[in-house]
Amino acid sequence: MSRKNLNIGLFGFGCVGLGLYEVLQKTPGLKATISNICVKDKEKKRAIGKENFTFDKNDILNDESINVVVELIDDADAAFEIVSAALKKGKAVVSANKKMIAQHFTELLELQKEYNVPLLYEAACCASMPIIRNLEEYYDNDLLESIEGIVNGSTNYILTKTFSENLSYDEALLQAQEKGFAESNPILDTGGFDAKYKLLILLAHSFGYVAKPKDIFNIGIDNIGELELKYAREKKLKIKLVAQAFKSETGNISAFVIPKFVTPDDRLYNVDDVFNGIITKTSFADTHFFVGRGAGSLPTASAVLSDISALSYDYRYEY
Ligand code: HSE
Question: Catalytic pick from 198, 238, 240, 247?
């Protein structure tokens, strides 16, 4: 298969951006070069030289030699501006911004159609676990009945550390932040919002059901009290923050994010630490179980890399 040469304009050089830079250095087979990096903070010390950076987004958006924009910034509103501008200029886009994608799913779909350019976002959902492309490709004709899983790495890390290692909640959260797992506003993790954004993306690719964040309940781990912890310990259960969606016989979709007691015979029971796990149930294949690192620099960068590689052979989601 002949592959395109990709000239990348990167937005954001935080934990995942740096991870992508490292990962690309170690992937000589792929003809993909980062030619410019746009960052916000002029003062921040960077791991690579100043000459690699710009502070003006138009240096990338107006550069006709750049055919791929990789968006790895934190701010969902700014990300939407960048991504829509890039699509309008005919540039393919890779994004890891689940909030931005969940909030603007329909507009992004329309922009892709109108300008005939792909937007890929495997890293936005469960980091290194290749779930979106599996939902798109493998289950194309085998109908999905339900999807259930742990889709937030930080809360799973916090639950694992507080439950099994008796760390305090604050210590465990601090560790999740230090390891680069948590969002810059960690309430997005602990309140189940991040899991909800991911669930919304999964819903679109599992059932073709496009919903808005306000359509789905999310109850976070902050609602777990001493009583629930004591009960779980006594009964040898674990508590996991689970995102769940299923289709009823009449075709209605139910979806929510909620902490759940999990028994040792449940496959999610051993999905600990920063790992994510998803169980799909289909009409013909019965169940599948996906597991992978759900956050962190290199695992998330690996999903971005996979999308970049897919763009080199013109892959796009069919929805
Ligand atoms: N804060 C997110 C998580 C990062 O902990 O899962 C990866 O999406």
Answer: 198
